[in-house]
Design brief:
The chain is mostly helical. It has helices at residues 3-13, 16-36, 40-49, 58-67, 74-78, 83-94, 101-108, 119-130, 140-149, 151-167, 176-190.
């Protein structure tokens, strides 16, 4: 399936706002790929599809993950919104004909990140946070500059802000993968 067909299908599955966000992530992913020397087509596809399972109700996310044998952690049961990334990677393969494991992995880890992410995973993780349709976030201008000059620093900065927000208690438990990812990327920056 080409990206034009994917866009058509997504537009019917997502809210207008979520679809616009997905187009923004697609665009920024492509830009970051050009700057950092990644495969632009893979970045565009992963950016476009990253939220393809986002608009399902929480109970449906859980039910579909269970139906398809996707593991669900305690934190994901408590905050099913996290499951859209894992389910999205599954849908990329099953509903959007994406055979490329790098693209599916970038979709799967765009929310929590993971230690030692591939360049494509980092690109989609960062693009999701900095795309221009997002509401203004703390330190966004600095993070956007880092994204194009030092993507690892940008990843660490995003995770720091995300964990600070989650620690404020407004979203329930923090996913352990985000904490591990933050520790990994801050240790990289402290070695410089």
């Amino acid at each position: 399936m080409n990206r034009f067909e994917m866009r058509e299908r997504l537009e019917n599955k997502l809210t207008k706002k979520r679809f616009e966000h997905s187009l923004g992530v697609e665009y920024v992913s492509g830009c970051l790929a050009m700057v950092h020397g990644a495969d632009v087509n893979k970045a565009l596809t992963a950016g476009l599809l990253h939220d393809c399972a986002k608009c399902l109700p929480a109970d449906e996310k859980i039910a579909r993950c269970q139906k398809h044998g996707l593991p669900i952690s305690q934190v994901e049961f408590a905050n099913p919104e996290l499951l859209h990334a894992k389910l999205g990677a599954y849908y990329a393969r099953e509903k959007y004909e994406v055979d490329d494991e790098d693209i599916r992995s970038a979709i799967e880890f765009h929310t929590t990140g993971r230690p030692a992410m591939s360049l494509l995973e980092k690109i989609v993780f960062v693009a999701d946070y900095i795309e221009p349709n997002r509401k203004p976030l703390p330190e966004i201008d600095e993070i956007r500059n880092e994204a194009f000059s030092d993507i690892d620093a940008s990843v660490a900065h995003i995770l720091k802000n995300t964990l600070t927000y989650l620690d404020s208690g407004s979203c329930g438990d923090t996913d352990e993968m985000s904490v591990r990812t933050y520790k990994y990327y801050t240790s990289l920056n402290s070695e410089d």
